[in-house]
Amino acid sequence: MSVEIQTPSGEVKTTHPAADLPPAVEEADSTLPFLQWPAVGSLFLWMIVPLGMTIYFSFIRYNLMNPELTGFAKADNFKYLWEDPAFFPAILNTVILLGSVLVITVVVGVLLAVLYDHRFFGRNVATLLVIAPFFVMPTVSALVWKNMILHPVYGLIALALHSVGLPAIDWFGDHPMFSVILIVSWEWMPFAFLILFTSIKSLDLEQQEAASIDGATGMQMFFRITLPHLSRAIGVVVMIETIFLLSIFAEIYTTTSGGPGTATTNLAYLVYSLGLQQFDIGIASAGGLLAVILANVVAFFLVRLLSNNLKAAR
Q1: Under CATH, what is the fold of the domain 76-313?
Q2: What is the dihedral sign for C-alpha 7, 11, 17, 22?
Q3: CB 245 within 8 A of CB 24
Q4: What is the rounded distance in angstroms from the CA atom of residue 272 to the CA atom of residue 94?
Q5: What is the pLDDT of residues 148-166, one digit of tens each?
Q6: Is 195 exposed, middle or buried (0-12, 13-18, 19+ CB in 10 A)?
Q7: pTM: predicted TM-score of the whole model, two decimal places
Q8: Confidence tier at 40 by pLDDT (50, 70, 90)
Q9: 112 near 195, Cβ under 8 Å?
Q10: Which residues are CB-contacts of 152 (< 8 A; sequence separation ≥ 6)?
C-alpha cells in the first residue's frame, strides 16, 4: 500500500510504509502465527477430543455392567433417551430452574445496584456481604442451606417458625424445586449485582439531575433512565448465567439427588444418572451430546441478541 505525502515545497512524494518498517518488526509479524499456534492447538485439542469421544460413544453400545454387549447402536441410544420417562421432566426442570434463577438474580441485582448507588452508612461492609456468596463453592453453599438454614428440625427457618408457634416445613421434601432455585439464586445473585452495579456507575448524573428538575418522580427516572441504561448489562448477565445454569449439578446432587422422584432432575443430573448410576456410557453420551447442542443453540441466539442490542445502542 502506498501513501502520497505533500512536502512544504508542494512536491508530492509516494511512500510505502510497509517497506519502511524495521527488519525486527517484519520478522515479528512473520513469526506471530507460529507463536499463536500452540495456544490455538491446545484449546482445539482440549475441546475436540472430549466432543469427539462423546459423539463416538453416543452411537455405540457401551455399558460398564455388560461389557460384552458392544457394536454400532445406530440411533438406539437417542431413541432410548427420548423414550426415557425422566427425559422430558428433566428438560422441563432445566427450563424452570434456568428461567426462575434468571428472573430472581436480574430483578434482585437491579434493585440492589440502584440501592447501593446511593451513599449510606456501612455501604462498603454491606457490599462485601452481598458479593460474598459468589466466592463460596457450590457444594459448600448447598450443604450450608441444607443443614443450617432449610433443615426441618434444626435449621434457622425451622427455629424461627417454632418460635412463633408454626410447624416446620420440610423444604427439600415438600418444595424441592423451590429450594434448589433459592440456593442457586443466592449463589448467582452477586454476579448479577457486580455487573449491574458497575454499569450503573457509568450513568450520566447530569441526565438524572435534569430529569429531577423537570419534575420526574423516582419511578419515572428508574423506568425511563436507569433501566434502559442497564439493558446491555442485563443482556450480558442473562447470556453468561444461561450458559452456566444449563449445567447446574452440584447443588442438586448435594441436596435432593434429583428427587423426590424426578422433581429436581435436570438434564445435567440425568446424564450423570445414566452414566454413573446405571453405568450406560452410550446413553449418557447421547444425553451429553443433546446438552451440548442445546447449550450452543441457546448461546448462539443470546450472542445474536446481545450483538443486536449493542448495535442499536450505537
Answers
A1: MetI-like fold (1.10.3720)
A2: negative
A3: no
A4: 14
A5: 999 998 899 999 999 999 9
A6: buried
A7: 0.81
A8: confident
A9: no
A10: 158, 168, 169, 170, 171, 173
Segments of the chain assigned to CATH 1.10.3720.10: 76-313
Average pLDDT of the residues of the chain: 85
**Contact (Cβ atoms closer than 8 angstroms) between residue 220 and residue 211:** yes
Within 10 angstroms of residue 225's Cβ, the number of other Cβ atoms is 17
Largest CA distance in the chain: 97
For the stretch 85-126, pLDDT in tens is 999 999 999 999 999 999 999 999 999 999 998 888 888 899
Residue 221 has pLDDT above 60, yes or no: yes
Helix 281-313 to helix 23-58 angle, to the nearest 10 degrees? 140
Helical H runs in the chain?
A: 23-58, 76-83, 87-116, 123-131, 138-144, 156-163, 171-174, 176-200, 205-213, 218-221, 227-229, 231-245, 250-255, 267-272, 281-313
Q: How far apart are CA 184 and CA 125, in angstroms?
A: 23
Q: What whole-number distance in Å separates Cα of residue 104 and Cα of residue 184?
A: 10
The residue type of 43 is L
Angle between the 176-200 and 87-116 helix axes, to the nearest 10 degrees? 40
